[in-house]
Amino acid sequence: MIILIIVYKQLDIRPRLAVIPPTILLAPFPLLAAQATAGWWTATITGGTWSCSLALTAWSRYRILGITASATLLLASLVVLYR
């Protein structure tokens, strides 16, 4: 959440209800997959990537890029967790 707040501040966007709930509800999947494969350092980087990609969905210019990155990261984490 801290990284998400920093990214919002840097991009000068306000948080939206369409971005905050997916960040909180779906974030455990990429974090657990990263920690299971490579440890806490990778989980930290993955959490930052997840927050930044979801923050991009709130910015209309990069909405498609943010949704694509978020979906790819979520799908990859589900594959890692359930293989």
Task: Provide a concise account of the structure shown.
The chain is mainly alpha-helical and 83 residues long.
DSSP helical segment count? 5
Cα end-to-end separation: 28 Å
The major pleated sheet works out as:
none
Number of strands: 0
Give the amount of beta strand, in percent.
Answer: under 5%
Task: Estimate the mean pLDDT confidence.
Answer: 76
What gyration radius follows from the Cα positions, in whole Å?
Answer: 12 Å
**Shape label:** globular
Main structural class = mainly alpha
Low-confidence stretches: none
Give a description of the structure.
There is one protein chain. The protein is an all-alpha fold. The chain has helices at 2-11, 20-26, 28-38, 40-58, 63-81. The chain has five helices and no strands.
Write the layout of secondary structure elements.
Blueprint lengths: L1 H10 L8 H7 L1 H11 L1 H19 L4 H19 L2
Helix pairs in contact: 1-4, 3-4, 3-5, 4-5
Comma- or semicolon-separated keywords:
83 residues, mainly alpha, 5 helices
